[in-house]
Amino acid sequence: MDRGRTGSKHHLITDATGIPLAATLTGGNRNDVTQLIPLLQAVPPVRGKRGRPRRRPDVVLADRGYDHDKYRRLVWVLGVKPLIARRGTEHGSGLGIQRWVAERAFAHVHWFRHLRIRWEIRDDIHEAFLALGCALSCWRRLRRSRGSAG
Q1: Higher pLDDT, 99 or 135
Q2: CB-side exposure of 77: number of CA atoms within 13 Å?
Q3: SS (H, E, C) the chain
């Protein structure tokens, strides 16, 4: 853990295709696992083909930074299956194949210079830029998929 790290961290939850569903901002010295439950609770209802809109995903994939038994239990209580890499195990667990989707989403959001380098002092302004970056990332994805379909 980087207790003395300055700056801020972006935490992001995406769907299976990399579209951002929720994002939070914390200080750079905060542990990643503290944002797991708030991110899951921040996911808005997503309408499926029919029935009631889904509120939470079936499965959550996460890297070793989110490995903590207490939070695994809390994720199960929310009705979500946690697939979280264990600390101390060898790399190559197979989660990296799916985790790159989230890493790519971070890269798309960090294309915006205001998010890659934090210039704002106020958190609310930086959070607004984070929300705008996620929205523009979704818009770009939708525009690209419409262009290839027609």
Answers
A1: 135
A2: 9
A3: CCCCCCCEEEEEEECCCCCEEEEEEEECCCCHHHHHHHHHHHCCCECCCCCCCECCCCEEEECHHHCCHHHHHHHHHCCCEEEECCCCCCCCCCHHHHHHHHHHHHHHHCCCHHHHCCCCCCHHHHHHHHHHHHHHHHHHHHHHHHHHHC
At 97, the pLDDT band (50, 70, 90 cuts) reads low
> Candidates 3.90.226, 2.40.160, 3.30.420, 2.20.28; correct CATH number of 8-149?
3.30.420
Give the residue from 95, 61, 58 showing the smallest Cα distance to 78: 58
Taking residues 85-100, report their average pLDDT: 69
Where does the pLDDT of residue 6 fall: very low under 50, low under 70, confident under 90, or very high at 90 and above?
A: low
Of 66, 76, 1, which is closest to residue 36 (Cα–Cα)? Answer: 66
For the four alpha carbons of 101, 11, 41 and 4, in that order, the dihedral sign comes to positive
Residue for token pair 């985790």: 99
**So what's the pLDDT on residue 4?**
54
